[in-house]
Amino acid sequence: MDGFQNTLDQDLHTPIVLIAFNGWSDTGTVTTDLADHLIDTYAGNRFLTVDPEEYYVFTEIRPEVRISPEGIREIQWPKNEGFTCHIPEINQDLVIIRGVEPNTNWKKFTTQLSKIIAETKPKLVCTLVARPAAMPHTRPILVSGSSADKEMAHTYGLEASTYQGPTGLIGVAHDAMRKHNLPLISYAALIPHYLSVEENPPATIALLKALEPILGFSVPTTSLEEESVHFLERVEEASKQDSQIGSYVKTLEERYEEMHTFDKSTDNMAAGDANLSADDVLRDVEDLLRRSEEEQ
């Protein structure tokens, strides 16, 4: 048994598949919040569920207890689900896979998932990523697109993916889907690494807006924009209360202006070396603390 229950029994119209997993490839809930926003906006129908028993170590990713509206205690297990959404104005279907990166049996998980995705005969498969970067929260979130397929990169105006190193479930899923000759691309939002929060509405909006040319339609974002205003107000207030964080944000703003260029003709930000390793984070914090001590 692989734990997958697939109830899809209809043909889809040139579907685009979006994949988002909490875990190594998602900073907080940026990508899964995007998936949930699309599912809610376009009345997604669930067609895929996965039994978590085979794919999680529950001492590492624990189930949670919630109280229902009726006052009953309920156990919520890690979920991996698939939804279909129909976009009537352009007669387009979306397939949205969202969930939590499993702890174990990645080969089995991605083999079965890629088979199900291939059966939808997708026009395009796009995985969503949010990763920490040397970015200030006071500047626009940068989003970059890439593909390991040079032809796909050229078609969609994306960077060629040349990454080598440790990977997460998204990387393993790409390998499994490539065996089905699926058209694969990926979009990544760069998130301020010093924000210890789960949700980041500005990043979710930026990632969604970057996807619109690929999707072929504009997605309503009013609710996300309202959340974004409140989010930035809270972050700004917190940064004002901590002089070291405030100084660090100013440093990042200066680096941002030096490392990124703004193309007003396309409204696109061209990212420089914004990716941030753990060593980069540590070095930035050490530099900030050292400067603060010198100024005292």
Task: Note the main attributes of this structure.
alpha/beta, nine-stranded mixed beta sheet, two-stranded antiparallel sheet, 8 helices, about 40% helix
Determine the N-to-C terminus distance.
63 Å
Briefly note the CATH topology name. Rossmann fold
Measured as a percent range, the helix fraction is: 25-40%
Number of domains: 1
Strand content: 15-25%
Please count the beta strands (DSSP E, at least 2 residues each).
13
What does this 3D model show about the protein?
The chain is α/β, with parallel strands linked by helices. It has one domain (4-295): 3-Layer(aba) Sandwich (Rossmann fold). The chain contains 8 helices and 13 strands. It has helices at 30-41, 106-119, 150-156, 169-178, 201-215, 222-241, 243-259, 278-295, and strands spanning 4-6, 16-22, 45-50, 64-67, 73-76, 80-87, 92-100, 124-133, 143-147, 159-160, 184-192, 261-263, 268-270. The strands form 3 sheets. Strands 1-3-6-7-2-8-11-9-10 form a 9-stranded mixed β-sheet, with helices on both faces. Strands 4-5 form a two-stranded antiparallel ribbon. A hairpin with a 4-residue loop joins strand 12 (261-263) and strand 13 (268-270). Helix 1 packs across helix 5 (201-215), helix 2 (106-119) packs across helix 4 (169-178) and helix 5 packs antiparallel against helix 6. The chain starts with a strand and ends with a helix.
